[in-house]
Specification:
Blueprint: H1 13-19, H2 26-34, H3 36-51, H4 66-82, H5 84-87, H6 94-104, H7 113-126, H8 129-140, E1 146-149, E2 165-169, E3 174-178, E4 186-187, E5 198-207, E6 210-220, E7 233-237, E8 250-254, E9 257-260, E10 270-271, E11 277-278, H9 288-318, H10 337-372, H11 379-407, H12 409-413, H13 419-428, H14 436-455, H15 486-512, H16 517-523, H17 525-550, H18 554-574, H19 576-581, H20 587-604, H21 608-613, H22 619-622, H23 633-642, H24 653-671
Parallel strand pairs: 1-5, 2-5
Antiparallel strand pairs: 2-3, 3-9, 4-8, 5-6, 7-8, 10-11
Helix pairs in contact: 2-3, 3-6, 7-8, 7-9, 9-10, 9-11, 9-13, 10-11, 10-17, 10-18, 10-20, 11-13, 11-14, 11-17, 14-17, 15-17, 17-18, 18-20
The structure holds ligand LZZOIA2V and flavin-adenine dinucleotide.
Ligand LZZOIA2V binds near residues 98, 114 and 158.
């Protein structure tokens, strides 16, 4: 039995030979990546989706208009729910459902995207028991379609400036929801434009003329039967986007629209019938749906980068171009060192992002169950961690995916590669759920508080314990045996700690000179976001270390360790300026890191296909001609191109309408 479990009769021979070189069992690696239970469920659900033709794309989405895309994905999502009990083991398991939707529907969006990822989590965390009964149960039972309407045309980041009003009317025991200006229109919510009939709406709570800041309200926006907007509500689609065009992101305006008082989500903050307001136990508890998405995004983004790496690495083993030694025949492009250097570090990042995604979900679950008991101590840690990870992971993912696209040459630019769409979806993640730079500055706030605690000999939390440790003056990289690469990890720690203390000292100096805290913050904002990035990159490297250490099977651990060591080298070189500034690393150590990285590229090369096969993306899920498991790329690229709508006729009307008359006229002129 070969160790790579993807080998099948009829596959491209080149790929089979590559797969036979695996040093580990790909299904065991899949278990390390996804968790053994989820890996098994993914495998089984993919097989079931393969058999259920009603879940298959009716044609490649690249050849569809937006309306066709919306309709196609609405059709598939309805079929998916109709068959869900036969396909998944536990429909209430978000991870299993996500993988089902990834297989059957893809990532271009569908009417229930925000319903599951924000609307339901908002109800779970913020609705009281009676409200859960009223809306959560119908939402889970698909009796209604919900969205999360927070961002406005004028403001997305600065939530304190949101303008939508929810004014309490004591006489009728109602809130009057109103959009006072054009900039107050809700703008962007997913599935709002044409699909949803309910929304969790963020609006400023106003009682007796006093504003209590924004709170969340349940608002029905469309009639349950006719689907027409209710009186006092204007709603529509905001138009085409870079990608994600099967989602109808929308706008929404209210003209003194009335809802019952009990439509304010009241698990934590409350308003009684006399207009008496009760504060929540934590000022930011109403932000929980955002924290939820930030926590799931990390693993999803890792998956997007894993998909792009799979496509590029498989294709690089099919594509031959040029010779390394003259006369010895064209080589697979993955045999070029530059191609390996382009792709393997992205593969390593995909792995670690998936591991970090798992860790952060565990912390989220813990915080959620604490919150249920009114306990909010870990909320700040979770906010800091998710803010940093969300920003660094999305940024590195899209940079990595772009490398994958370019590594596929011309065919990478074609939608047949599958990379443009997932890149477009992933890059949205740099903006949604908190613009990256803004979220890095949120983490920086936490880090600056941590420095203050450290100076008192205390730690703000587990994530920043390392700030209490003393700084070494010189790195031991290349000075001691490599072992588990401890000196490399220590270098990540050193770089992060130094930048964090450096910027904290600079802030103090500016304030000592009389500058206000806010202006000093502005003067150092770029350095602050750098501190946040370095802290997060250290977290990621340490997470990779924890994962490798936890693996029991020797062959899996060895293959993972190669990726981990490559990651350490590659990322350190990417941040090397920070280590050179204080001469922590010497030039010869940088050379040592480089040479070790080149060695690791060669070590990883024979396992490359098995490391991507271990993601176990089905062809249906990958939606890529270049990334096909069987490697039959060229004949299928030709087949795909023939499906282009432009090939429906040899001559298209625009030729007769514009080009032919122009050429005829030009010929006539030349005959005169
Ligand atoms: C069938 C299908 C099945 C399954 C489907 C499964 C999955 C689906 C998959 C994909 C999903 C599909 C689609 C999803 C795609 C997109 C969804 C995107 C949705 C959105 O974008 S919603 C809108 C998001 N908006 C934002 O993120 C706004 C960003 N801004 C902010 O968060 C805040 O304004 C802020 C944090 C920047 C600042 O807030 P503030 O002004 O109120 O606070 P301060 O800066 O003054 O800070 C004060 C204090 O509070 C702390 N703080 C801030 N936030 C939090 C928090 N969340 N938790 C805890 N603490 C917080 C902050 O740190 C300060 O603390 P300090 O101690 O005073 O320093
Ligand atoms: C695909 C997609 C789906 C979305 N889905 C939803 C949804 O379902 N529901 C919803 O409510 N919203 C949704 N959004 C909106 C999204 O959450 C916001 O666009 C996002 O939070 C960024 O806010 P903004 O657009 O106001 O950007 P801005 O804040 O205007 O950002 C513009 C620039 O200003 C900078 N900037 C802003 N503030 C600061 C600051 N304090 N310090 C330093 N720099 C700053 C930013 O870094 C950025 O460079 C979605 C957006 C996208 C793209």
């Amino acid at each position: 039995m070969p160790l790579n479990k993807e080998i099948q009769p009829g596959d491209n021979d080149e790929l089979t030979r590559e797969r036979l070189q695996a040093t580990f069992d790909t299904q065991q690696m899949a278990a390390a990546l996804w968790g053994s239970d989820l890996a098994r469920k993914r495998r089984e659900l993919a097989k079931k989706v393969d058999k259920l033709t009603v879940l298959h794309d009716s044609k490649d989405m690249s050849f569809m208009t937006r309306e066709e895309k919306l309709s196609e994905n609405a059709r598939k999502v309805v079929q998916m729910f109709a068959h869900v009990a036969d396909i998944v083991e536990d429909p209430s398991d978000d991870a299993e459902m996500f993988h089902l939707s990834s297989n059957a529907i893809g990532h271009e969006g569908h009417p229930f995207g925000v319903h599951f990822v924000m609307f339901i989590p908002a109800l779970k965390a913020q609705a009281d028991d009676e409200q859960r009964e009223k809306w959560l149960m119908p939402a889970l039972g698909l009796q209604l379609i919900g969205t999360y309407a927070q961002t406005e045309l004028g403001h997305g980041t600065n939530l304190r400036a949101l303008e939508t009003m929810a004014t309490f009317d004591k006489a009728t025991d109602e809130f009057v929801i109103h959009t006072p200006t054009v900039t107050a229109l809700k703008w962007w919510p997913g599935s709002l434009g044409k699909s949803s009939n309910h929304a969790v709406v963020s609006a400023n709570l106003i009682i007796d003329g006093k504003s209590y800041g924004h709170h969340n309200f349940m608002v029905q926006i469309r009639d349950e039967n006719t689907h027409k907007p209710l009186k006092g509500i204007t709603v529509g689609d905001i138009g085409p986007k870079m990608a994600y065009n099967a989602s109808d992101n929308g706008f929404l305006g209210f003209d003194h629209h009335r809802i019952p008082r009990r439509n304010m989500l009241m698990r934590h903050a409350k308003v009684d019938k006399n207009g008496v307001y009760t504060k929540p136990p934590h000022a930011k508890i109403g932000y929980s749906a955002m924290v939820h998405v930030r926590s799931v995004m990390i693993g999803h983004q890792g998956m997007f980068l894993g998909s792009a790496s799979t496509i590029a690495i498989r294709y690089s083993l099919v594509r031959r171009q040029g010779e390394i030694k003259e006369g010895s025949g064209e080589v697979k492009i993955l045999d070029y060192q530059t191609q390996q250097h382009r792709l393997f570090p992205q593969l390593a990042r995909a792995y670690v992002f998936m591991f970090a995604g798992k860790e952060v979900r565990e912390l989220y679950q813990k915080v959620l169950s604490d919150m249920e008991k009114g306990e909010t101590t870990l909320l700040a840690d979770l906010h800091a961690l998710t803010s940093g990870l969300k920003s660094v992971v999305t940024h590195l993912c899209v940079a990595g995916m772009e490398q994958c696209r370019m590594a596929c040459g011309g065919h990478g630019y074609s939608r047949a590669s599958g990379i443009p769409e997932i890149w477009g979806v992933a890059v949205g993640g740099c903006t949604y759920e908190g613009e990256n730079m803004v979220m890095l500055l949120q983490l920086a706030r936490y880090l600056m508080k941590a420095v203050k605690e450290t100076k008192k000999g205390k730690s703000l939390g587990r994530l920043v314990d390392y700030l209490l440790l003393p700084q070494d003056r010189h790195s031991l990289i290349g000075r001691v045996p490599q072992g588990e690469y401890g000196p490399h990890l220590a270098a990540f720690e050193h770089i992060a700690r130094r930048q964090i203390f450096k910027v904290a000292d600079e802030l103090t100096k500016l304030q000592d000179k009389g500058m206000s805290k806010e202006i000093a913050w502005q003067k150092k904002a770029v350095e602050l976001q750098r501190a946040a990035r370095l802290h997060t990159r250290f977290y990621l490297a340490a997470c990779f270390h924890r994962k490798v250490q936890s693996v029991v099977d020797g062959r899996i651990r060895e293959a993972l360790a190669d990726l981990y060591h490559l990651h350490l080298n590659y990322e350190l070189l990417d941040m090397v300026n920070y280590a050179l500034e204080d001469a922590y690393l010497k030039a010869d150590q940088v050379d040592f890191i480089r040479e070790d990285m080149y060695r690791l590229l060669e070590t990883i090369r024979p396992n490359a296909i098995s490391l991507v096969d271990a993601f176990e993306f089905s062809d249906r899920e990958l939606r890529s001609v270049l990334g096909r498991r069987d490697g039959h790329v060229y004949e299928n690229l030709y087949k795909w191109a023939k499906e282009s709508e432009l090939n429906r006729a040899d001559v298209l009307p625009y030729f007769d309408k514009y080009l032919k008359p122009m050429m005829l006229a030009a010929r006539q002129r030349s005959n005169i």
